[in-house]
Amino acid sequence: MTTTGEDHERALTGPWWWARRRSAVLDGSLALVSAVECAAEGVPFAREAGIPASVGIVFGLIAGAVLLVRRKWPIAVVLVAIAITPAEMGFLMGVVGLYTLAACELPRRVIGSLAGMSLLGTAVVTFVRVRQDMARGDLTLGDWFVPFAAVTTALGLTAPPVLLGLYVGARRRLMESLRERADSLERELQLLAERAEERAEWARNEERTRIAREMHDVVAHRVSLMVVHAAALQAVARKDPEKAVRNAALVGDMGRQALTELREMLGVLRAGEGVGRRAAAVPLAAVGEAAVAAASRVAEAEGAAEGPCLSELEELVGQSAAAGMVVDLSVEGEVRSYAAEVEQTAYRVVQEALTNVHKHAAGAKTHVRLAHRVSEIAMQVENEPPPEPASASAAGLPSGGNGLVGMRERVLALGGVFVSGPTDAGGFRVSAVIPAA
């Protein structure tokens, strides 16, 4: 299991400068052993120095106990060990102090200087002691043994702890950097998760807005025509039964078309809902793959429910004409196909504009113009003033005020331009230009 920086900080439960209690126990044990060693070595030192043995023992106890602060002041421990080297005491303190010094985050020149001092002091003391032993006759080896013993002893007591300390310090710094990197990665993952939630919420809002526009376009246009035909059916039911039958058939056809389009949109909603439930169970590490899969499934579902296209524009105009509207359609430029979202948006703009004419200017003559240009497609729906301003309210067609907003959102989403407003003649004009690409 990876330990993060916060967990590491919470694990610092030791007293004073120790990170953990076991570290304090270890340093206390080492200091106790070092104090006993120095006290034992203080007896011959006191005998040679001509001082009482008790003084040598107390001096050894105090000097050896300095090892207790090796983590706090490693330089002081090494200096004390170098200072008592001539007394031939503090070997454990010197080894542990050099290891601690090398493992600390100190400049290499400081570590090298103190290690060199310890090496030199140990070599000199060993050289002097071995030479004295040979002079007394305790050793009968040749003169070559004196420098050999001095160098070997000094290297043996200095090099291993220094090298081990450098290795442990490098490993400790590596683990610390890895821990910090894990912390940063964890924070980045949290940030990515928050951003993913924000993007998901934004996508849901956009999808709700899109579905609301589709529902508005389908229901408003089809139902408006159905209401108009129903009113005409009621007016001519007794006078012209054949026309009433035709109007009733048109109402049925439009109702079936409205139900078909609503059923297609509900199919897309069900497909997207299933994808959302499956994506919610995907772990954070697979968010990218799940998002791609979800997008592809939703795209397939939307592809299965194909929307209207410009080839159906004449049928749309014909439906309005069958409902009693005087409407003409003019197409300029070379007819060609566009991307599905471009054709659907152009169709919906014309559809919603005709619906508004049915609602607010029933009976007004309407002109629908479609222009295929080099890099864009333009459409305009303009109606003349209605002959009877009260006819719209008489037909009972309510208005929610969302039609123009929905058209503007559709066009702007594709990078187009949308303009609507009354004309000088008293009518109303809706114009839109959508990039072809």
From TrEMBL:
Reaction(s) catalysed by this chain's protein: ATP + protein L-histidine = ADP + protein N-phospho-L-histidine
Coiled coil, from the record: 168-206
Keywords: ATP-binding, Coiled coil, Kinase, Membrane, Nucleotide-binding, Phosphoprotein, Transferase, Transmembrane, Transmembrane helix, Two-component regulatory system
Transmembrane segments: 49-69, 75-98, 110-128, 148-170
InterPro entries: HATPase_C_sf (IPR036890), Sensor_HK_TwoCompSys (IPR050482), Sig_transdc_His_kin_sub3_dim/P (IPR011712)
Enzyme Commission number(s) of this protein: 2.7.13.3
Residues annotated as domain Signal transduction histidine kinase subgroup 3 dimerisation and phosphoacceptor: 207-272
Protein name: histidine kinase
Uppermost EC category: transferase
Gene3D superfamilies, per database record: 1.20.5.1930, Histidine kinase-like ATPase, C-terminal domain (3.30.565.10)
Entry superkingdom: Bacteria
Gene: liaS5
GO MF annotation: an example: protein histidine kinase activity
